[in-house]
Amino acid sequence: VAEEDIKNCENGIFKEDEKLKCYMFCLMEEANLADDDGVVDYEMMVSIIPEQYTDRVTKMIFACRHLDTPEKSKCQRAFDVHKCSYSKDPEFYFLF
After folding, report:
1. First to last CA, the chain
2. Going by fewer Cβ within 10 Å, which terminus of the chain is more open, N or C?
3. Distance between CA atoms of residues 28 and 65, nearest Å
4. How far is CA 69 from CA 34, 37, 48, 56, 78, in A?
5. How many domains does the chain have?
6. Bridge-partner residues for 40, per DSSP?
7. pTM as predicted
8. Entry's CDD domains (predicted)?
9. Would you say residue 94 lies in a domain?
């Protein structure tokens, strides 16, 4: 994945690129927040965030969780949730 594509996400520019989409999923998988089948543990994701940010992250992530549907690939689901998370709180978004 191009470093530029990763940095662009933090500015709301989400390139429709399969490598970027799978990179997003891989980050979650490597952090043990998703299993091999692409099932993301959103409660676990929120639990590892520092307490002072919990409310903000919870609102951002859970507002987008509905986009994580099994008919899409795990990479597409990760991408959709990230893109939506940015739209919900652009100032706080980070590539998790």
Report:
1. 15
2. N
3. 14
4. 14, 12, 23, 23, 10
5. 1
6. 34
7. 0.90
8. PBP_GOBP
9. no
Per-residue pLDDT of the chain (96 residues; tens, 9 = 90+): 999 999 999 999 999 999 999 999 999 999 999 988 888 999 999 999 999 999 999 999 999 999 999 999 999 999 999 999 999 999 999 876
Asked, for residue 93, whether it belongs to a domain, the answer is: no
Is 96 contained in some domain?
A: no
95 part of a folded domain? no
16-52 burial, b at 16+ Cβ within 10 Å, e below that, comes to eeeebbbbbbbbbbeeebbeeebebebeebbeeeeee
In angstroms, the Cα distances linking 74 to 25, 53, 55, 56, 61 are 7, 26, 26, 25, 16
| Consecutive H or E run containing 84 | helix 74-88
Give the pair of three-digit tokens for residue 27.
Answer: 């980050």
Task: Return the CATH number at 13.
Answer: 1.10.238.20
Structural domain range at position 46: 3-88
Q: Is residue 78 packed enough to be buried (19+ CB in 10 Å), middle (13-18) or exposed (0-12)? A: buried
